[in-house]
Amino acid sequence: MPKSSNRDKILTEGLRVVHERGFAGASVRDIVQAAGVPQGSFTNHFASKEAFGLEIIDLYFAASWALIQKTLRNDELPPLQRLGAYLDANTERLSPAGMRHGCLFGNFSAEASEHSEAIRRRIVEIFAQVQQSIAYCLEAAVRAGELPAGFECGEAADFVLTSLQGALLLAKAQRSSAPVERLKRVLFSKVLN
Amino acid sequence: MPKSSNRDKILTEGLRVVHERGFAGASVRDIVQAAGVPQGSFTNHFASKEAFGLEIIDLYFAASWALIQKTLRNDELPPLQRLGAYLDANTERLSPAGMRHGCLFGNFSAEASEHSEAIRRRIVEIFAQVQQSIAYCLEAAVRAGELPAGFECGEAADFVLTSLQGALLLAKAQRSSAPVERLKRVLFSKVLN
Q1: What is the pTM of this model?
Q2: Which domains does chain B have, with CATH numbers?
Q3: Subunit contact A109:B102, Cβ cutoff 8 A
Q4: Smallest Cα distance from B2 to chain A, Å
Q5: The complex's ipTM?
Q6: Shortest Cα distance, chain A CAs vs residue B70, angstroms
Q7: Tens of pLDDT, residues B41-74
Q8: Is A132 exposed, middle or buried (0-12, 13-18, 19+ CB in 10 A)?
Q9: What are the C-alpha distances in Å from A62 to residues A55, A67, A126, A151, B137?
Q10: DSSP B84-100
């Protein structure tokens, strides 16, 4: 395998460090130390910490999007089963660290939306893409008769996105997946019918 | 009126600065500058930034608790009306800044729970007190016949707390109160019946 470039190392290790410590909480020095590259390497490869932030957001979203393709947008599976699988996949992604790191997009919303307008706009775009994928899945559920005709898929998709962000935030504080499991129970018993 | 002490100025202005910029994003220098006091004043009054963080959390929670007493725990009003008033009061509290600062407890969950175990524990305690207050209100709704006998008040209260945190987080990113208004619609039409 080819040796990974310093730029790749900074992105991969930098994403991990920012996910663990927060964007403001992870200094450029922390990032280059974790990547095992010289400090100057960061400024060679990134115009600013904001530019680096936008790249790690895209890197994290690439994995999120793969997960969405396998679940919400997977036309091979029954629609509501896909939504359940999507919620489970969010838990599985974060559970190796005991849920303590939370969703990177939620973390950026909480701490970086005031520092960088470019980051805030990118996070809002990503949330819109997730919401559209949930709506896509709910519309399929209506067509399949799993939800009643006239079900408001757009509003429900916004609600699922928002409540999942809340559940991942509480899961991070409590270091427990219980909030996501509860969300799943309430959604399927009360909201999605 | 007595002149406010440097300690009070640091707490009041420090809370504002941390709420705007995040806990890691607000340096001790930013805080003393906002308070208009000498840098040494901070170390005179607080053993650490963590100790200061715990005090501003209590200061913010005092206002949250007053709001809970006026709404969720106000036995003079019909129970579900109190819950609606509580959701509205959260929006009103944050709307002067266009929702951009979010809930201080959610912000601390996202960014500081990894940096300070004492802060994380305090935030978890506060969430539990809010959850108990929502459950108190829902139990009153069951007694008043506004919710069916056997309604699972504890689980629903956890869900309301979690979803409200999500709505305030999305409201912060989107700079709009729409997520909280949507939460209110979905809760009252689907979950609380």
Answers
A1: 0.96
A2: 1-46 (1.10.10.60), 54-191 (1.10.357.10)
A3: yes
A4: 35
A5: 0.95
A6: 24
A7: 999 999 999 999 999 999 999 999 999 999 999 9
A8: middle
A9: 11, 9, 11, 30, 42
A10: HHHHHHHHHHHGGGTTT
